[in-house]
Amino acid sequence: QVQLQESGGGSVQAGGSLRLSCVISGVMPSGYTIGWFRQAPGKEREGVARLDPDGTTTYVDSVKGRATISQDNAKRILTLQMDRMRPEDTGMYYCATDLFFPRWPLYVGGIGHWGQGTQVTVSS
Fold it and tell me: Any bridge partners for residue 93, and if so which?
């Protein structure tokens, strides 16, 4: 069973940066996609960035050019670097993994492994 634990959230002014980390423990099944989702108050959860087993990275349009997802060589830490942050980036950020991310960047269920989340607040 894989466990995920996020850290690195906080408050930042617009234009600033944050680096989120997700520590992966337990047994990570092969072939799983891993990525970041976020949920703002009153809004649906949405995908932010994903890393596929072949190393492909994909970003939701709103963060393209401002976000970078990466993983360490041991595949035990997933990182999301967010730059030039905007107030609309505010939300709870979650690390998640499963064999598929159906209809990504929408979240429609079907993803079985989640962390507890880390709060990100961007002030204008």
Answer: 38, 118
